């Protein structure tokens, strides 16, 4: 049966935001509200968006964006996307391919000569598809050093490594290192800071007015949701770690409303050409991960389903797209648990059942 929220699609966006901890942005849906019950109330919360045929058929906030002062989660709350950021890094590379400034099969060392000789065979395509063999930069960090690392620091760490995990292009291994390097390549190929490039070429043109690759002391995250973890029987703010300043692999903040604009752009040529979108969503490699037979560029692929999760200290997020049904479910949360992918799948199934 079609969820009750669909019946009210015509009035979405016209309802005033409530001042309670869980503002009603669409009429309540008992099934979805039941799934999201753990996020409701005076606890770190979540934001849920269901898009069908380009329209928001369910759009609600649950719980708190800021526990300390009781600020509620809304559709405008900006969450750290963590690895959901990777699709934007991939899009930035593809835009530069469209510009003729980059080639997917160029060696990474053409742009990053600091990389060691062991990395000579690594291409941009392999960085995008997690088949580069690069070591995980988090395993190379000094645990006694509490300073935040940045994308350039990742390059410095890798430049001192004489080996790879495996020969480039021969295996898949999920790599935050690769996406940090891709951000640096965007900067060097474009002549702009990575955050500036994203703003000028993606966020600005799409009207994603409050989305930002966040740099502490440089920008301000509007309507920011802070991250929390359940520690010693209560929620504690755990918003930043030593890796939170790395932009290419997970440093973007965004909201439901801005991500709806991003999702719409993935259906047409307003940003990426058909060839670029085909490259992004085509299997570039197989993977051993559950529900991920293949990986594209910044997207996990399970048959026709395109999805990606994002996990960092205090945040758990997911976007799941069913392009054949023009259905997208986004769940953003500012807590360390639970993983929202099963929730997003359960929410999507309610619409998929009604579309059969």
Describe this structure in words.
The chain is an alpha+beta fold and 356 residues long. Helices cover 28% and strands 18% of the residues. The protein is built from 10 helices and 15 strands. The strands form 4 sheets. The protein has an 8-stranded antiparallel beta sheet with strand order 2-1-15-14-13-12-11-10, sandwiched between helices. Helix 2 crosses helix 7 and helix 5 packs across helix 6. The longest helix has 15 residues.
Query: What's the tally of helices?
Result: 10
Q: What structural class should be given to the helix and strand makeup? A: alpha+beta
Largest sheet: 8 strands, antiparallel
Shape: globular
End-to-end span in angstroms? 10 Å
Order of H and E elements? HEEEEEHHHHHHEEEEHHEEEEEEH
- Average pLDDT score: 92
* Low-confidence region ranges: 1-24
The tally of beta strands, per DSSP, is 15
Keywords:
single chain, alpha+beta, 8-stranded antiparallel sheet, 3-stranded antiparallel sheet, 18% strand, globular
In short:
The chain has ten helices and 15 strands. The protein has 356 residues and is of the alpha+beta class.
List the helices and strands and how they pair.
Blueprint: H1 30-35, E1 46-52, E2 55-62, E3 64-66, E4 71-72, E5 79-80, H2 86-98, H3 124-128, H4 137-140, H5 151-159, H6 176-190, H7 194-206, E6 212-213, E7 228-231, E8 234-237, E9 252-254, H8 256-265, H9 274-281, E10 285-286, E11 294-295, E12 300-302, E13 305-312, E14 315-322, E15 327-333, H10 341-355
Helix pairs in contact: 2-6, 2-7, 5-6
